[in-house]
Amino acid sequence: MSIYQPRSEAEAAGLIGEAAARGERLRLVGGGTRAGIGRPAQDEATLSAAGLTGITLYEPAELVIAARAGTPLAEVEARLAEGGQMLPFEPMDHRALMGSTGAPTIGAVAAGNVSGPRRIAGGAARDSLIGVRFVNGRGETVKSGGRVMKNVTGLDLVKLMAGSWGTLGFLTEVTFKVLPVPERTATLVLAGLDEARAVEAMSLALGSPFEITGAAHLPEGIDGPARTLLRIEGFTASVDYRLGELTRLLRRFGKPEIQEGETAGKLWLSVRDVLPFAGSDEAVWRLSTAPGRGPAVTAAIAAARPARWFYDWGGGLVWLATPATGDAGAQAVRAAVAGGGHATLVRAPDSVRAAVPVFEPLSEPLMRITAGLKAAHDPAGLFNPGRMYAGI
């Protein structure tokens, strides 16, 4: 299989134009750390962004950074750290969960709309993405958005590209807005709550004025006893005040422990990167639902097959592991989230991912729109064919 690694946007456009003329289907990759997400590849060559590297703009005063798509995420985060800043959405690193190697790239973060626990406060990756450059399936270079928020006008291809998993275009540059790193971070830990009580506590905290930036629940058996985590960030005086007020607000749920530094950091890293399920041979699902429905959804799945899980985003995100046998729980999972959520099969053997829908099945009207968008941007179906939906 051919591997193309352009060193410039112009070279990428030329390669894609030639592939279009040949009808050669392309697998688009960055660092390859998330290659196992989606349906199995149906391509004939690989087009890698690894040669498109470098930070092209960093304006700390404007809270904006731009980088070529193949730039390692670690390089972007290190540059931001030098300026006392960060990406607001705390992007997940999939390597431990997927058993992959390589370096996550900033373009792949945008393409997958990859977000972490801070999403509940800072929004998803797409909310911070303000500009993109990409090459479409005709070999044409497209620019959308800008380098400041007020320049995002017209058809918002920026948000369209976020979460498209490389099916609509080959990203060459992305621009994100950033935020200052908090002066202090503290985590309030409530022990021993069952899932319904934990969701109640997280909802109460998130509905308060105390600016929670992380809310997760690890049930008993997920790396130890049951723990409910509530993160607060900001200036030290503000954190002290909010910890006190939050402790009083949640007093009926028990006396919390306050953790800071490396201990708390490891907890949130485990939640962000789904480390409780790393290294196993189970299928892993990512379920999105209303926080109040989370315990009912997991109970319905557990009634149908063995499963273990934990909650992020105040209960609105459920990470669930189940044996990778049969349909890897697809029927039970889809039935449980029907009418109030959606689910993505993040990790499973190729045979399972080829046989069951990996991303949430679309209604007929939405499938027509999706097919139309694919045809408009990639008329020959070159990019990651079938990765999200069969035939698209």
Automatic annotation (TrEMBL):
It comes from the Bacteria. One of its GO terms (molecular function) is FAD binding. InterPro entries: FAD-bd_PCMH, FAD-bd_PCMH-like_sf, FAD-bd_PCMH_sub2, FAD-linked_Oxase-like_C, Oxid_FAD_bind_N. The keyword Glycosyltransferase does not apply. It is an enzyme of class 1 (oxidoreductase). Its EC number is 1.1.99.14. It holds the Pfam family FAD_binding_4. Residues 1-181 form the FAD-binding PCMH-type domain. The keyword Nucleotide-binding does not apply. Keywords: FAD, Flavoprotein, Oxidoreductase. NCBIfam families: PRK11282.1. This is Glycolate oxidase subunit GlcE. It comes from Methylobacterium terricola. The lineage of its organism: Bacteria, Pseudomonadati, Pseudomonadota, Alphaproteobacteria, Hyphomicrobiales. The gene is glcE.
